[in-house]
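Model it.
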Amino acid sequence: MEDIGAAHMPDCEEILASGPFLDDLRSLNAAIVAALEAAGEPAAINGNVLYANKVEDFDSAAFSPVMAAKRRALAVMARRSRSFVEVGVAGGHAVLLALHANPELRVIGIDLAERLRPFWPPVEVFVPAAAAWLEARFPGRFRLIRAEAVAGLQEVARSQPFGPVDMVHLDGGKTGRMEELAAIWPALAPRAWLLQGDYAHGQVRE
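Modeled.
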């Protein structure tokens, strides 16, 4: 499958170094930090394609070298897709990279945004803040479904708001991947990409 408009699309490293991406990144991070500070929380979020897990003052941290391969894969898949569904939006950084990689891409994020474990960063604070920023910055190109993974995927499969899904990023819970795939399966395009988070986790590998 050819990249959509590939001749006009920069590669991942070019995106990460570009002025428009870095401007958006600073603005997104500022919105997240402001929400965390207002809630009396430190500036730490879940790990993602850009930053290491729970690093404090993430907004001034360097990009995680461990995630470089995933960043590149995400950008390549985004260029070849039109409708992207992500389970586990977190700070929205994967969504931001994907939207910059392909100006035609539409994204649906699914996240419960509830702190189910006491050692988690405050997802109930930064996930809605990130989603609100993305929805305002990319009107018509991003929407959040605040739901448990399978329920959210079933909703997308029923409604297909951006048409058949040709890119899926599963980066939420680790024990229900087969159920998650079954939930979104009716909405998948004839050819679709799957990107898995936590790939080293035993249950995800299985």
